[in-house]
Design goal:
The protein has 107 residues and is mostly helical. It has one domain: Single alpha-helices involved in coiled-coils or other helix-helix interfaces, CATH 1.20.5.2440. 87% of the residues lie in helices and 0% in strands. The chain is flat. The N terminus is likely disordered.
Amino acid sequence: MQAVKLKLVDGVRNTKTYTGLKLDNRSLKEQNDELNGQIINLSIQGAKSLFTESLSESLAAEINNVSRAELMEAIHKQEEINFRLQDYIDRIIVAIMESNPSILEVK
């Protein structure tokens, strides 16, 4: 008889513990959702501030502050990067055409 009472008491304790854990879990989930919302808001604010800062420095202002030689050097560097990227893309397309040309079909 005493063993049955212990099991019943343990069952009640376990039920209370389980209910308490469920409440704690729900509370933690709500806190987590709230913190995630705050993170998103901070990220958006940070992105907005970066955007407004980048708008303040226009391309025209940058061009006015560099010499012609520096500008020409930057253009040549960009042309070299563009050439390398185009070459890379060409090699990828050729490899795809050799191995599986059907994935290049436009549907």
